[in-house]
Amino acid sequence: MRIGIIGAGVFGATAALRLAKAGYDVELIDRNDRILSCASSINQYRLHRGHHYPRSLETIQSCKESAGAFEREYPDAVIKDNTHYYCISAKDSLTSAEQFTKMCDAFRLHYREEPLDIVSRDNVSLCVRVSEYAIDPVALYSTIYDRLRRSTVKLMLNTSAERSMLSRYDLVVVAAYAGTNAVLEALDISPVRSYQYELCEKIVVKLPQNFIRKSAVILDGPFTCIDPLGRSGNFVMGHVVHAIHTSNIGLHPIIPDEFKSLLNRGIVKNPSITNFSKFIESASEFFPDIRKAEHVGSMYTFRTVLPNQEATDSRPTIVERVNDQVVTIFSGKIGNCVQTTDKILELVQEKEKNKEPSSI
């Protein structure tokens, strides 16, 4: 069976590798000149176990189930020697300290109350240390690239999706995240859903020594998170409000002209547009020493979520049959890539079992 996978991010690449290992003829296609070129390389680099989504039971369970599979698939890309903390803001939090601990207990998520020296105790109602790991983006890229090079997967970079691809493959898997609908349209298929596209900035900073190897998330509202950026010695910061420069709901992301030179370019030094000062001002309420941060640069990409999920902040993983020949993958969490591939493999095996060469 010939399988074409469009999108060489972590989901597409993982699917390609595992399907090729299972004996299928796989081509991995991407319009860019390198793998993992967009959101797969620009995120918070946290291997979630569920603590981050206390209002979405589905997302908690999904994160919890998928983290172990990711660790086993990419052990060299998992950083286990950082310490990870979650704090509940003393005000304006959608989740109380009691609700958070009850959630952890209900899902058997490990935590223990422990003060964190970089956090202002007066401004949090709870601070817990959790068993969570980080992702090293450099190691993840190297691991996947090396595996692709040694595999039977045919990697086709600088290649855009087009309708003629449907005649080349028994199955087409679209793993293009923010570009999903653009790929479907290129295949002459009507998009099946709208998404919410958020043009996000992740600021990269140097921080004082007392932050080293510490990850901290403030829940559950318009707050910040700080994580080590792999093993670089720098940190990446996110913010529920200030990270988002633009947002639109529709079939495609709207890219303002002023962001086109910044988008998916890795760390941009001295960016022409940045919310760095807003990040720092907001974070200083919880992290007093954050005012000593040095701005190394910023990274810009589109985060894509389902519309109108504000009540729960749900981040589902969806493997969807568009028609008899095309399947789409949509997920907001890197840790889900292995389990998602397992679902694709099940569909492929079902297709073979039914002996229907053009349907699954």
Description of the molecule:
This protein has helices at 10-21, 57-73, 97-107, 137-150, 180-186, 276-283, 337-354, and strands at 2-6, 25-29, 46-47, 78-79, 83-89, 111-113, 124-130, 133-135, 154-156, 171-174, 195-206, 214-219, 224-228, 235-239, 244-250, 294-305, 318-321, 326-330. It has 360 residues and is an alpha/beta fold. The chain has one domain (2-354): D-Amino Acid Oxidase, subunit A, domain 2 (D-Amino Acid Oxidase, Chain A, domain 2), CATH 3.30.9. The radius of gyration is 20 Å and the shape is globular. This is FAD dependent oxidoreductase domain-containing protein. InterPro entries: FAD-dep_OxRdtase, FAD/NAD-bd_sf. It holds the Pfam family DAO. Residues 3-304 form the FAD dependent oxidoreductase domain.
Q: Outline of this structure?
A:
The protein is an alpha/beta fold and 360 residues long.
How would you summarize the topology of this molecule?
Elements: E1 2-6, H1 10-21, E2 25-29, E3 46-47, H2 57-73, E4 78-79, E5 83-89, H3 97-107, E6 111-113, E7 124-130, E8 133-135, H4 137-150, E9 154-156, E10 171-174, H5 180-186, E11 195-206, E12 214-219, E13 224-228, E14 235-239, E15 244-250, H6 276-283, E16 294-305, E17 318-321, E18 326-330, H7 337-354
Parallel strand pairs: 1-2, 1-10, 2-9, 5-12, 10-18
Antiparallel strand pairs: 3-8, 4-8, 5-7, 6-7, 11-14, 11-15, 11-16, 12-13, 13-14, 17-18
Helix pairs in contact: 1-7
Within the CATH hierarchy, at the fold level, what is the topology? D-Amino Acid Oxidase, Chain A, domain 2
Q: Give the CATH level 1 class.
A: Alpha Beta
Supply the CATH architecture: 2-Layer Sandwich
Number of domains: 1
Largest sheet: 9 strands, mixed
Shape summary: globular
CATH-assigned homologous superfamily:
D-Amino Acid Oxidase, subunit A, domain 2
The total of beta strands comes to 18
CA distance, first residue to last residue = 12 Å
InterPro entries: FAD-dep_OxRdtase, FAD/NAD-bd_sf
Organism: Candidatus Giovannonibacteria bacterium RIFCSPLOWO2_12_43_8
Protein name: FAD dependent oxidoreductase domain-containing protein
Domain FAD dependent oxidoreductase: 3-304
